[in-house]
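In response to reviewer comment 3 from the previous cycle, which asked for concrete evidence that the modeling workflow produces usable outputs, we include below a single protein chain processed end to end. The sequence was submitted unchanged, and the resulting structure tokens are shown without manual editing.
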Amino acid sequence: MLPPRRTRTIHVRDLAIGGTAPIAVQSMAATRTRDVPATLRQVRILEEAGADLIRIAVDSQADVDALAEIRRQTKARLSVDLQENYRLAEKVAPYVDKLRYNPGHLHHHEKEKPVREKVAYLVGVAKQHRLALRIGVNAGSIAPEYDLRFGDDHVGAIAQCAIDHCAMVDELGFVDYCVSIKDSDPRFVIDANQRFAAARPDVPIHLGVTEAGMPPEGIIKTRIAFEQLLSRGIGDTLRVSLTLPFDDKGREIAVGRELVRDVEAGRFRSVPPNFFDGLNIIACPSCSRVENEKFIELAEDVKRMSEYAREHKLTIAVMGCRVNGPGETDDADLGLWCGPNFVNLKRGEKELGAYPYDAILPRLKQELDRLIAERQARRA
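The workflow returned the following structure tokens.
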């Protein structure tokens, strides 16, 4: 049986989250929002799979217009991801039930304005339209001042960012909000959420391991984090982020439900001590920011191509968009982030160039071989 949670209860339209409410399972439309038929198909796939809430990203006026039409054709509970343009909040508010903003993106626009003023604007929109709010801290796009303050304490930086934004929202007299603190490493997710829950036990928490990647590894990574947190009474809503073909996105909901049932029944799956040894492939679950569906095939191709290097302790990140791609590949040994026609290749934070989709794999292999050879030479 799951231990009792101490968080308050908030509402996303008629959906209760936190407190004694059942753990809500949600997902995100993977298609480009402006493609209304494709996005509506995603919404319906997720609804049929039993999603409690469906997130859709907006990044432009075209996305806002599409969202209005999507809302006209569905009664599903919708959350909107504001991406880097927080000013879209007032435009999308009439069509959704919840706003999600990333504190790490607030500094990109209107840089002369204090972050507190931008948060006040978002809270004002949420109040006016009776929407819930999610403060979504993502390790790959942490606000620069936290990196400066915390240095190598990566977990401390993301946890404190969430704590500080909660304080801002509290001062504005708004309580219908939750927090998510995500990373691609489940160990960081466990640590950061435990730190946050200790500091703010009242705030409902959305759990996720971002860019968990493809099954089965992506499911294992997610299970590691969720088992440890749910069994401690931490987590009120969750998403399993998997890199899947668009028509299979309902699997995220099925896996999430199964995971909650297993923890509730005391069924835990052991993790071998060497799980984090060897090659680690990080891949985002795809969303409406992805500008070329070839990204999903590329992630699978990278996994197959790099099989020969599975014994080497290296990380390859395959990211699908320009929003999270550049930052979330910085910590990988080799990183790919995908645009409409080209894939950007990185080695750590160093840019190595942009290549067509049909040329990136051999170029990645070349760099992987070079990296392995350099490490072997140093050991020798």
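The radius of gyration is 20 Å. We consider this sufficient to address the reviewer's concern, and the full set will be provided in the supplementary archive.
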